[in-house]
Hints:
Bound molecules: ligand NAX, potassium ion
CATH class of the largest domain: Alpha Beta
GO molecular function: ADP-dependent NAD(P)H-hydrate dehydratase activity; ATP binding; kinase activity; metal ion binding; NAD(P)HX epimerase activity
Mean pLDDT: 95
Binding site for K(+): 63, 126, 162
Number of domains: 2
Low-confidence stretches: none
Protein name: Bifunctional NAD(P)H-hydrate repair enzyme
Binding site for AMP: 402-406, 431
Structural class: alpha/beta
Largest sheet: 10 strands, mixed
Strand order of the largest sheet: 8-17-16-15-14-13-12-9-10-11
Number of strands: 17
CATH architecture of the largest domain: 3-Layer(aba) Sandwich
Shape: elongated
CATH superfamily of the largest domain: Ribokinase
Strand content: 5-15%
EC number: 4.2.1.136, 5.1.99.6
Amino acid sequence: MKIISSETMRDLDARTIANKRVASLELMERAGKQCSEQIELFCSQLAPHHKKRLIILCGPGNNGGDGFVIARYLTSKFEVKTYCTHKQDKLSPDAKTNSSKVSELCEFEASSQLLNKITEGDIIIDCLFGTGLNRALTGEYETLVNSINASQLPVISVDSPSGLLSDGQVPSAAIKATITLSIGLPKTSYFQNDGPAHVGSLINLDIGFSKDYITQAPSEGQAFFAQDAKKTLQSFTYNSHKYTRGQCLIIAGSELYNGAPIIAADSAAVSGAGMVILAHESLRTPQNPGIICLTKPPDIIKSHFFEKSQSVLIGPGIEINDKNKKLFTHLIKSDKALVIDASAIDLIADNKTLFPRNAPTIITPHAGELQRLAKGLNINHSDLSKAAQHIAQNLSIQVLLKGPQSKIYNEQGAFSYNTSGNWALSTAGSGDALAGIIASLWAKKDINYYEQAQLGCFIHGKSVDFYTGAKRSFTVDLFPSLISKVLHSLSPLA
Ligand SMILES: NC(=O)C1=CN([C@@H]2O[C@H](COP(=O)(O)OP(=O)(O)OC[C@H]3O[C@@H](n4cnc5c(N)ncnc54)[C@H](O)[C@@H]3O)[C@@H](O)[C@H]2O)[C@@H](O)CC1
Ligand SMILES: [K+]
Protein backbone atom coordinates (compact mmCIF):
# COMPACT_ATOMS: atom_id res chain seq x y z
CA MET A 1 0.00 0.00 0.00
CA LYS A 2 1.13 3.47 -0.83
CA ILE A 3 2.54 5.68 1.93
CA ILE A 4 1.61 9.34 1.53
CA SER A 5 2.44 12.61 3.28
CA SER A 6 -0.04 14.20 5.69
CA GLU A 7 -0.31 17.07 3.21
CA THR A 8 -1.40 14.68 0.44
CA MET A 9 -3.87 13.08 2.87
CA ARG A 10 -5.46 16.44 3.61
CA ASP A 11 -5.60 17.15 -0.12
CA LEU A 12 -7.27 13.78 -0.74
CA ASP A 13 -9.88 14.53 1.95
CA ALA A 14 -10.51 17.97 0.49
CA ARG A 15 -10.81 16.77 -3.12
CA THR A 16 -13.14 13.93 -2.12
CA ILE A 17 -15.42 16.36 -0.31
CA ALA A 18 -15.18 19.23 -2.86
CA ASN A 19 -16.04 16.94 -5.75
CA LYS A 20 -18.95 15.59 -3.74
CA ARG A 21 -17.69 12.04 -3.98
CA VAL A 22 -18.36 11.62 -0.25
CA ALA A 23 -19.59 14.26 2.21
CA SER A 24 -17.13 15.20 4.95
CA LEU A 25 -19.50 14.08 7.70
CA GLU A 26 -19.88 10.74 5.95
CA LEU A 27 -16.08 10.32 5.87
CA MET A 28 -15.92 11.08 9.58
CA GLU A 29 -18.76 8.64 10.25
CA ARG A 30 -16.91 5.87 8.39
CA ALA A 31 -13.64 6.68 10.17
CA GLY A 32 -15.26 6.72 13.60
CA LYS A 33 -17.26 3.55 12.95
CA GLN A 34 -14.24 1.59 11.76
CA CYS A 35 -12.14 2.86 14.65
CA SER A 36 -14.81 1.73 17.11
CA GLU A 37 -14.81 -1.75 15.53
CA GLN A 38 -11.03 -1.98 16.01
CA ILE A 39 -11.31 -0.75 19.60
CA GLU A 40 -13.97 -3.40 20.26
CA LEU A 41 -11.69 -6.05 18.76
CA PHE A 42 -8.81 -4.88 20.96
CA CYS A 43 -11.06 -5.04 24.03
CA SER A 44 -12.26 -8.54 23.12
CA GLN A 45 -8.64 -9.74 23.30
CA LEU A 46 -8.07 -8.47 26.85
CA ALA A 47 -8.25 -10.69 29.91
CA PRO A 48 -11.88 -11.28 31.07
CA HIS A 49 -11.38 -9.45 34.39
CA HIS A 50 -10.17 -6.29 32.59
CA LYS A 51 -12.78 -3.58 33.15
CA LYS A 52 -12.40 -1.99 29.70
CA ARG A 53 -13.42 1.50 30.78
CA LEU A 54 -12.67 3.82 27.89
CA ILE A 55 -11.46 7.39 28.19
CA ILE A 56 -11.87 9.21 24.87
CA LEU A 57 -9.85 12.43 24.60
CA CYS A 58 -11.03 14.80 21.87
CA GLY A 59 -9.17 17.80 20.50
CA PRO A 60 -10.70 20.79 18.65
CA GLY A 61 -10.34 19.54 15.05
CA ASN A 62 -11.66 16.66 13.01
CA ASN A 63 -9.47 14.18 14.88
CA GLY A 64 -11.60 15.09 17.89
CA GLY A 65 -14.63 14.69 15.62
CA ASP A 66 -13.66 11.06 15.04
CA GLY A 67 -13.59 10.69 18.84
CA PHE A 68 -17.21 11.85 19.21
CA VAL A 69 -18.32 9.31 16.59
CA ILE A 70 -16.40 6.58 18.44
CA ALA A 71 -18.09 7.63 21.69
CA ARG A 72 -21.50 7.28 20.02
CA TYR A 73 -20.76 3.78 18.71
CA LEU A 74 -19.19 2.41 21.88
CA THR A 75 -21.25 3.96 24.63
CA SER A 76 -23.80 1.13 24.69
CA LYS A 77 -21.05 -1.50 24.81
CA PHE A 78 -18.52 -0.13 27.31
CA GLU A 79 -18.24 2.34 30.13
CA VAL A 80 -17.14 5.39 28.14
CA LYS A 81 -16.03 8.81 29.36
CA THR A 82 -15.43 11.48 26.74
CA TYR A 83 -13.49 14.66 27.42
CA CYS A 84 -12.95 17.48 24.99
CA THR A 85 -10.23 20.08 25.41
CA HIS A 86 -12.36 22.92 23.99
CA LYS A 87 -15.80 24.48 24.27
CA GLN A 88 -18.31 23.03 21.83
CA ASP A 89 -18.55 26.29 19.83
CA LYS A 90 -14.77 26.32 19.31
CA LEU A 91 -14.73 22.98 17.49
CA SER A 92 -14.34 22.40 13.75
CA PRO A 93 -17.78 22.25 12.06
CA ASP A 94 -17.88 18.45 11.68
CA ALA A 95 -16.51 17.86 15.16
CA LYS A 96 -19.17 20.21 16.51
CA THR A 97 -21.96 18.37 14.67
CA ASN A 98 -20.80 15.01 16.01
CA SER A 99 -20.20 16.36 19.50
CA SER A 100 -23.82 17.53 19.65
CA LYS A 101 -24.96 13.92 19.19
CA VAL A 102 -23.14 12.88 22.36
CA SER A 103 -23.03 16.16 24.27
CA GLU A 104 -24.76 14.72 27.34
CA LEU A 105 -22.02 12.06 27.55
CA CYS A 106 -19.14 14.49 27.15
CA GLU A 107 -17.36 17.07 29.28
CA PHE A 108 -16.16 20.09 27.29
CA GLU A 109 -13.36 22.55 28.04
CA ALA A 110 -11.85 19.86 30.21
CA SER A 111 -8.10 20.43 29.59
CA SER A 112 -7.22 21.32 33.16
CA GLN A 113 -9.01 18.29 34.66
CA LEU A 114 -7.66 15.72 32.24
CA LEU A 115 -4.60 14.86 34.27
CA ASN A 116 -6.81 13.48 37.06
CA LYS A 117 -9.30 11.88 34.71
CA ILE A 118 -7.03 9.62 32.70
CA THR A 119 -6.51 7.15 35.52
CA GLU A 120 -10.28 6.69 35.89
CA GLY A 121 -10.18 4.50 32.81
CA ASP A 122 -8.37 1.43 31.55
CA ILE A 123 -7.86 2.30 27.88
CA ILE A 124 -7.17 5.74 26.43
CA ILE A 125 -8.50 6.66 23.00
CA ASP A 126 -6.32 9.47 21.68
CA CYS A 127 -8.28 11.80 19.38
CA LEU A 128 -6.47 14.99 20.40
CA PHE A 129 -4.63 15.76 17.14
CA GLY A 130 -4.26 14.05 13.80
CA THR A 131 -2.89 15.32 10.51
CA GLY A 132 -3.74 18.90 11.52
CA LEU A 133 -1.00 19.07 14.16
CA ASN A 134 1.33 21.78 12.92
CA ARG A 135 3.61 22.55 15.86
CA ALA A 136 5.08 21.04 19.00
CA LEU A 137 2.78 20.31 21.92
CA THR A 138 3.34 22.71 24.79
CA GLY A 139 1.88 23.57 28.20
CA GLU A 140 -1.09 21.48 29.37
CA TYR A 141 -0.96 19.26 26.24
CA GLU A 142 2.66 18.38 26.80
CA THR A 143 2.06 17.57 30.47
CA LEU A 144 -1.03 15.52 29.59
CA VAL A 145 0.76 13.46 26.95
CA ASN A 146 3.70 12.79 29.28
CA SER A 147 1.27 11.65 32.00
CA ILE A 148 -0.56 9.36 29.58
CA ASN A 149 2.76 7.79 28.57
CA ALA A 150 3.68 7.32 32.23
CA SER A 151 0.28 5.79 33.08
CA GLN A 152 1.11 2.34 31.64
CA LEU A 153 -2.38 2.24 30.14
CA PRO A 154 -2.91 0.98 26.59
CA VAL A 155 -3.49 3.87 24.19
CA ILE A 156 -5.22 3.63 20.83
CA SER A 157 -4.36 6.66 18.72
CA VAL A 158 -6.70 7.69 15.95
CA ASP A 159 -4.82 8.53 12.74
CA SER A 160 -1.67 9.69 14.54
CA PRO A 161 -0.19 9.58 18.02
CA SER A 162 -0.86 13.13 19.19
CA GLY A 163 2.36 15.14 19.19
CA LEU A 164 3.93 13.31 16.25
CA LEU A 165 4.58 15.86 13.50
CA SER A 166 4.08 15.06 9.82
CA ASP A 167 7.83 14.51 9.29
CA GLY A 168 7.96 12.00 12.14
CA GLN A 169 9.68 14.41 14.56
CA VAL A 170 8.62 14.77 18.18
CA PRO A 171 9.99 18.13 19.30
CA SER A 172 8.40 18.01 22.78
CA ALA A 173 6.14 15.07 23.64
CA ALA A 174 3.95 12.61 21.75
CA ILE A 175 1.71 9.72 22.71
CA LYS A 176 3.44 6.34 22.66
CA ALA A 177 0.54 4.42 21.16
CA THR A 178 -0.19 0.73 21.58
CA ILE A 179 -2.05 0.83 18.28
CA THR A 180 -2.37 3.58 15.69
CA LEU A 181 -5.49 3.41 13.53
CA SER A 182 -4.43 5.02 10.27
CA ILE A 183 -7.33 6.60 8.41
CA GLY A 184 -7.35 6.30 4.62
CA LEU A 185 -3.70 5.67 3.80
CA PRO A 186 -0.54 5.31 5.90
CA LYS A 187 1.43 8.53 6.46
CA THR A 188 5.20 9.07 6.21
CA SER A 189 5.36 10.11 9.89
CA TYR A 190 4.77 6.48 10.98
CA PHE A 191 8.04 5.35 9.42
CA GLN A 192 10.45 8.27 9.82
CA ASN A 193 12.53 9.68 12.65
CA ASP A 194 10.66 9.28 15.98
CA GLY A 195 7.57 7.77 14.29
CA PRO A 196 8.38 4.05 14.70
CA ALA A 197 8.88 4.50 18.46
CA HIS A 198 5.44 6.12 18.83
CA VAL A 199 2.97 4.39 16.49
CA GLY A 200 2.82 0.89 18.05
CA SER A 201 0.99 -1.65 15.88
CA LEU A 202 -0.37 -0.08 12.71
CA ILE A 203 -3.82 -0.83 11.31
CA ASN A 204 -5.02 0.97 8.19
CA LEU A 205 -8.71 1.71 7.73
CA ASP A 206 -10.05 2.13 4.24
CA ILE A 207 -12.80 4.76 4.43
CA GLY A 208 -13.62 4.66 0.72
CA PHE A 209 -11.54 7.30 -1.04
CA SER A 210 -11.94 6.89 -4.77
CA LYS A 211 -9.38 4.59 -6.39
CA ASP A 212 -8.37 7.14 -9.03
CA TYR A 213 -7.52 9.74 -6.35
CA ILE A 214 -5.39 7.19 -4.56
CA THR A 215 -3.63 6.25 -7.80
CA GLN A 216 -2.87 9.90 -8.56
CA ALA A 217 -1.59 10.67 -5.04
CA PRO A 218 2.22 11.03 -4.96
CA SER A 219 3.81 8.04 -3.26
CA GLU A 220 6.34 8.38 -0.43
CA GLY A 221 7.01 4.63 -0.28
CA GLN A 222 5.29 1.31 0.32
CA ALA A 223 4.04 -0.50 3.41
CA PHE A 224 2.35 -3.89 3.70
CA PHE A 225 -0.94 -4.02 5.62
CA ALA A 226 -3.71 -6.58 6.17
CA GLN A 227 -5.47 -5.27 3.03
CA ASP A 228 -2.36 -6.19 0.99
CA ALA A 229 -2.12 -9.57 2.71
CA LYS A 230 -5.73 -10.36 1.78
CA LYS A 231 -4.98 -9.68 -1.88
CA THR A 232 -1.72 -11.62 -1.84
CA LEU A 233 -2.80 -14.79 -0.06
CA GLN A 234 -3.36 -17.38 -2.77
CA SER A 235 -6.31 -19.72 -2.61
CA PHE A 236 -6.09 -23.38 -3.54
CA THR A 237 -8.41 -25.11 -5.96
CA TYR A 238 -10.81 -27.98 -5.20
CA ASN A 239 -8.46 -30.46 -6.87
CA SER A 240 -5.27 -29.33 -5.12
CA HIS A 241 -2.97 -32.10 -3.97
CA LYS A 242 0.18 -32.06 -1.95
CA TYR A 243 2.45 -31.56 -4.96
CA THR A 244 0.44 -28.73 -6.51
CA ARG A 245 0.46 -26.97 -3.14
CA GLY A 246 4.23 -27.21 -3.27
CA GLN A 247 7.08 -28.97 -1.53
CA CYS A 248 9.65 -27.20 0.57
CA LEU A 249 12.90 -28.57 1.92
CA ILE A 250 14.36 -27.22 5.14
CA ILE A 251 18.04 -27.80 5.83
CA ALA A 252 18.67 -26.72 9.38
CA GLY A 253 19.94 -27.47 12.86
CA SER A 254 23.00 -28.91 14.53
CA GLU A 255 23.65 -31.05 17.63
CA LEU A 256 23.58 -27.85 19.69
CA TYR A 257 20.84 -25.89 17.94
CA ASN A 258 18.29 -28.64 17.49
CA GLY A 259 15.16 -26.57 18.19
CA ALA A 260 15.53 -24.16 15.26
CA PRO A 261 14.71 -26.77 12.57
CA ILE A 262 11.57 -27.81 14.48
CA ILE A 263 10.25 -24.26 14.70
CA ALA A 264 10.99 -23.60 11.02
CA ALA A 265 9.40 -26.86 9.83
CA ASP A 266 6.28 -26.58 12.00
CA SER A 267 5.75 -23.00 10.83
CA ALA A 268 6.27 -24.00 7.19
CA ALA A 269 3.80 -26.87 7.47
CA VAL A 270 0.91 -24.59 8.51
CA SER A 271 1.65 -21.89 5.93
CA GLY A 272 0.50 -23.60 2.75
CA ALA A 273 3.12 -26.02 1.35
CA GLY A 274 1.65 -29.46 0.68
CA MET A 275 4.79 -31.20 1.83
CA VAL A 276 7.59 -30.14 4.18
CA ILE A 277 10.83 -32.11 4.31
CA LEU A 278 13.18 -31.46 7.19
CA ALA A 279 16.84 -32.45 6.84
CA HIS A 280 18.46 -32.00 10.24
CA GLU A 281 21.01 -33.31 12.69
CA SER A 282 19.08 -34.51 15.72
CA LEU A 283 16.38 -36.96 16.74
CA ARG A 284 14.08 -34.19 17.90
CA THR A 285 10.78 -34.31 16.01
CA PRO A 286 8.41 -31.53 14.96
CA GLN A 287 4.94 -31.15 16.55
CA ASN A 288 3.46 -32.05 13.17
CA PRO A 289 3.89 -35.76 12.30
CA GLY A 290 3.15 -34.97 8.64
CA ILE A 291 6.62 -33.44 8.26
CA ILE A 292 9.10 -35.85 6.67
CA CYS A 293 12.24 -35.89 8.80
CA LEU A 294 15.58 -36.95 7.35
CA THR A 295 18.04 -37.23 10.20
CA LYS A 296 21.70 -36.71 9.23
CA PRO A 297 20.96 -37.31 5.52
CA PRO A 298 24.16 -38.33 3.66
CA ASP A 299 23.77 -36.29 0.47
CA ILE A 300 20.53 -34.40 0.39
CA ILE A 301 21.30 -32.68 -2.94
CA LYS A 302 21.24 -36.01 -4.75
CA SER A 303 17.93 -37.13 -3.24
CA HIS A 304 14.52 -36.96 -4.90
CA PHE A 305 13.43 -34.84 -1.93
CA PHE A 306 15.69 -32.09 -3.18
CA GLU A 307 14.78 -32.63 -6.82
CA LYS A 308 11.03 -32.34 -6.16
CA SER A 309 11.22 -29.31 -3.85
CA GLN A 310 10.37 -25.92 -5.30
CA SER A 311 11.92 -24.01 -2.42
CA VAL A 312 14.77 -24.69 -0.02
CA LEU A 313 15.41 -22.99 3.31
CA ILE A 314 18.93 -23.23 4.65
CA GLY A 315 20.25 -21.78 7.84
CA PRO A 316 18.28 -22.00 11.10
CA GLY A 317 20.68 -23.47 13.66
CA ILE A 318 23.21 -24.89 11.18
CA GLU A 319 26.87 -25.25 12.00
CA ILE A 320 29.41 -23.75 9.62
CA ASN A 321 31.55 -26.74 8.66
CA ASP A 322 33.02 -28.06 5.41
CA LYS A 323 29.99 -30.23 4.68
CA ASN A 324 27.57 -27.31 5.00
CA LYS A 325 29.85 -24.96 3.06
CA LYS A 326 29.88 -27.41 0.15
CA LEU A 327 26.15 -27.91 0.40
CA PHE A 328 25.58 -24.16 0.40
CA THR A 329 27.59 -23.68 -2.82
CA HIS A 330 25.53 -26.46 -4.48
CA LEU A 331 22.34 -24.74 -3.44
CA ILE A 332 23.47 -21.38 -4.81
CA LYS A 333 24.24 -23.06 -8.15
CA SER A 334 20.86 -24.85 -8.22
CA ASP A 335 17.62 -23.56 -9.74
CA LYS A 336 15.67 -23.74 -6.47
CA ALA A 337 14.03 -20.73 -4.87
CA LEU A 338 16.24 -20.16 -1.83
CA VAL A 339 15.58 -18.74 1.62
CA ILE A 340 18.88 -18.09 3.37
CA ASP A 341 18.70 -17.47 7.10
CA ALA A 342 20.89 -17.23 10.20
CA SER A 343 24.48 -18.49 9.97
CA ALA A 344 24.04 -19.48 6.31
CA ILE A 345 24.00 -15.74 5.55
CA ASP A 346 27.68 -15.71 6.58
CA LEU A 347 28.44 -18.06 3.67
CA ILE A 348 27.28 -15.63 0.98
CA ALA A 349 30.45 -13.52 0.85
CA ASP A 350 32.62 -16.53 -0.10
CA ASN A 351 30.17 -17.38 -2.89
CA LYS A 352 29.58 -13.87 -4.19
CA THR A 353 30.83 -14.65 -7.71
CA LEU A 354 27.90 -17.10 -8.09
CA PHE A 355 25.41 -14.23 -7.98
CA PRO A 356 23.08 -13.30 -9.63
CA ARG A 357 21.48 -16.72 -9.40
CA ASN A 358 19.00 -18.12 -11.90
CA ALA A 359 16.28 -18.43 -9.29
CA PRO A 360 14.70 -16.20 -6.62
CA THR A 361 16.68 -15.74 -3.42
CA ILE A 362 15.86 -14.03 -0.14
CA ILE A 363 18.08 -13.49 2.87
CA THR A 364 16.56 -12.75 6.28
CA PRO A 365 19.22 -11.06 8.41
CA HIS A 366 18.86 -9.12 11.64
CA ALA A 367 21.05 -6.04 12.00
CA GLY A 368 24.14 -7.95 13.20
CA GLU A 369 23.95 -10.52 10.41
CA LEU A 370 23.53 -7.82 7.79
CA GLN A 371 26.50 -5.90 9.16
CA ARG A 372 28.69 -9.02 8.97
CA LEU A 373 27.57 -9.70 5.40
CA ALA A 374 28.18 -6.10 4.31
CA LYS A 375 31.65 -6.26 5.84
CA GLY A 376 32.35 -9.53 3.99
CA LEU A 377 31.21 -7.94 0.73
CA ASN A 378 33.21 -4.73 1.37
CA ILE A 379 30.05 -2.65 1.45
CA ASN A 380 29.80 0.37 3.73
CA HIS A 381 27.63 -0.69 6.65
CA SER A 382 27.37 2.53 8.65
CA ASP A 383 23.80 2.92 7.35
CA LEU A 384 22.14 -0.50 7.54
CA SER A 385 19.22 0.40 5.27
CA LYS A 386 21.55 1.58 2.53
CA ALA A 387 23.71 -1.53 2.96
CA ALA A 388 20.63 -3.77 2.63
CA GLN A 389 19.58 -1.94 -0.52
CA HIS A 390 23.07 -2.14 -1.99
CA ILE A 391 23.32 -5.89 -1.31
CA ALA A 392 19.87 -6.52 -2.82
CA GLN A 393 20.83 -4.70 -6.03
CA ASN A 394 24.39 -6.03 -6.25
CA LEU A 395 23.53 -9.69 -5.77
CA SER A 396 20.07 -9.39 -7.32
CA ILE A 397 18.41 -10.93 -4.27
CA GLN A 398 15.69 -9.92 -1.82
CA VAL A 399 16.80 -8.73 1.61
CA LEU A 400 14.46 -8.87 4.59
CA LEU A 401 16.07 -6.69 7.22
CA LYS A 402 14.47 -7.73 10.51
CA GLY A 403 13.74 -5.13 13.16
CA PRO A 404 10.90 -3.25 14.87
CA GLN A 405 9.68 -2.18 11.41
CA SER A 406 11.14 -4.87 9.16
CA LYS A 407 11.92 -3.76 5.62
CA ILE A 408 11.94 -6.00 2.57
CA TYR A 409 14.07 -4.95 -0.39
CA ASN A 410 13.53 -6.40 -3.84
CA GLU A 411 16.20 -7.13 -6.46
CA GLN A 412 15.94 -3.57 -7.79
CA GLY A 413 16.47 -2.04 -4.33
CA ALA A 414 12.87 -0.87 -3.83
CA PHE A 415 11.51 -1.66 -0.40
CA SER A 416 8.36 -2.02 1.62
CA TYR A 417 7.81 -1.74 5.39
CA ASN A 418 6.11 -4.53 7.27
CA THR A 419 3.42 -3.20 9.62
CA SER A 420 2.61 -6.18 11.82
CA GLY A 421 4.29 -7.50 14.95
CA ASN A 422 5.43 -6.23 18.30
CA TRP A 423 8.27 -6.78 20.77
CA ALA A 424 7.00 -10.26 21.65
CA LEU A 425 8.88 -11.32 18.50
CA SER A 426 12.18 -10.51 20.17
CA THR A 427 12.64 -14.02 21.49
CA ALA A 428 14.91 -16.88 20.44
CA GLY A 429 13.46 -18.95 17.60
CA SER A 430 11.23 -16.23 16.21
CA GLY A 431 13.36 -15.78 13.07
CA ASP A 432 13.28 -19.54 12.42
CA ALA A 433 9.48 -19.33 12.17
CA LEU A 434 9.71 -16.41 9.73
CA ALA A 435 12.13 -18.28 7.46
CA GLY A 436 9.86 -21.35 7.55
CA ILE A 437 6.76 -19.33 6.61
CA ILE A 438 8.49 -17.71 3.62
CA ALA A 439 9.97 -21.01 2.42
CA SER A 440 6.47 -22.48 2.51
CA LEU A 441 4.93 -19.57 0.54
CA TRP A 442 7.78 -19.79 -1.97
CA ALA A 443 7.24 -23.50 -2.66
CA LYS A 444 5.51 -22.71 -5.93
CA LYS A 445 6.43 -21.77 -9.44
CA ASP A 446 5.23 -18.63 -11.24
CA ILE A 447 4.35 -16.58 -8.20
CA ASN A 448 5.28 -13.01 -7.35
CA TYR A 449 8.06 -13.94 -4.91
CA TYR A 450 8.45 -10.40 -3.58
CA GLU A 451 4.76 -10.13 -2.69
CA GLN A 452 4.83 -13.58 -1.09
CA ALA A 453 7.88 -12.62 1.00
CA GLN A 454 6.05 -9.53 2.24
CA LEU A 455 3.03 -11.69 3.01
CA GLY A 456 5.22 -14.10 4.99
CA CYS A 457 6.68 -11.28 7.04
CA PHE A 458 3.21 -9.86 7.68
CA ILE A 459 1.78 -13.24 8.81
CA HIS A 460 4.73 -13.75 11.14
CA GLY A 461 4.23 -10.36 12.84
CA LYS A 462 0.47 -10.66 12.96
CA SER A 463 0.80 -13.99 14.79
CA VAL A 464 2.13 -12.25 17.87
CA ASP A 465 -0.35 -9.40 17.44
CA PHE A 466 -3.05 -12.10 17.71
CA TYR A 467 -1.50 -13.60 20.84
CA THR A 468 -3.76 -12.69 23.75
CA GLY A 469 -1.53 -13.66 26.69
CA ALA A 470 1.18 -11.54 28.30
CA LYS A 471 3.56 -10.51 25.52
CA ARG A 472 6.62 -11.46 27.54
CA SER A 473 5.22 -14.97 27.95
CA PHE A 474 4.92 -15.63 24.24
CA THR A 475 6.86 -18.75 23.23
CA VAL A 476 7.70 -19.86 19.70
CA ASP A 477 5.91 -23.22 19.94
CA LEU A 478 2.71 -21.15 19.69
CA PHE A 479 3.51 -20.01 16.14
CA PRO A 480 1.70 -22.82 14.26
CA SER A 481 -1.69 -22.23 15.90
CA LEU A 482 -1.32 -18.44 15.68
CA ILE A 483 -0.27 -18.57 12.01
CA SER A 484 -3.40 -20.55 11.28
CA LYS A 485 -5.52 -17.93 13.07
CA VAL A 486 -3.91 -15.13 11.05
CA LEU A 487 -4.48 -16.95 7.75
CA HIS A 488 -8.11 -17.55 8.65
CA SER A 489 -8.55 -13.87 9.48
CA LEU A 490 -7.23 -12.96 6.03
CA SER A 491 -9.59 -15.29 4.20
CA PRO A 492 -12.37 -17.64 5.34
CA LEU A 493 -11.17 -19.90 2.49
CA ALA A 494 -7.53 -19.85 3.61
N1 LIG B 1 -12.86 15.19 6.13
C1 LIG B 1 -11.73 15.03 6.70
O1 LIG B 1 -10.83 15.87 6.57
C2 LIG B 1 -11.56 13.86 7.59
C3 LIG B 1 -10.67 13.94 8.64
N2 LIG B 1 -10.55 12.96 9.53
C4 LIG B 1 -9.81 13.19 10.78
O2 LIG B 1 -9.44 14.53 10.90
C5 LIG B 1 -8.06 14.67 11.19
C6 LIG B 1 -7.56 15.95 10.65
O3 LIG B 1 -8.41 16.95 11.16
P1 LIG B 1 -8.01 18.48 11.24
O4 LIG B 1 -7.44 18.90 9.96
O5 LIG B 1 -9.20 19.19 11.74
O6 LIG B 1 -6.83 18.53 12.28
P2 LIG B 1 -6.65 17.96 13.74
O7 LIG B 1 -7.91 17.49 14.31
O8 LIG B 1 -5.52 17.03 13.68
O9 LIG B 1 -6.18 19.23 14.57
C7 LIG B 1 -6.36 20.54 14.13
C8 LIG B 1 -6.57 21.47 15.31
O10 LIG B 1 -5.49 21.38 16.21
C9 LIG B 1 -4.91 22.69 16.44
N3 LIG B 1 -3.48 22.46 16.66
C10 LIG B 1 -2.55 22.03 15.78
N4 LIG B 1 -1.37 21.86 16.38
C11 LIG B 1 -1.54 22.16 17.69
C12 LIG B 1 -0.69 22.17 18.83
N5 LIG B 1 0.58 21.82 18.76
N6 LIG B 1 -1.19 22.56 20.02
C13 LIG B 1 -2.49 22.92 20.12
N7 LIG B 1 -3.35 22.93 19.08
C14 LIG B 1 -2.88 22.56 17.89
C15 LIG B 1 -5.25 23.47 15.20
O11 LIG B 1 -5.23 24.84 15.48
C16 LIG B 1 -6.64 22.93 14.89
O12 LIG B 1 -7.60 23.55 15.73
C17 LIG B 1 -7.43 13.44 10.62
O13 LIG B 1 -6.20 13.14 11.24
C18 LIG B 1 -8.51 12.40 10.87
O14 LIG B 1 -8.39 11.91 12.19
C19 LIG B 1 -11.41 11.77 9.45
O15 LIG B 1 -12.53 12.05 10.20
C20 LIG B 1 -11.81 11.44 8.05
C21 LIG B 1 -12.37 12.63 7.33
K1 LIG C 1 -4.68 11.23 17.57
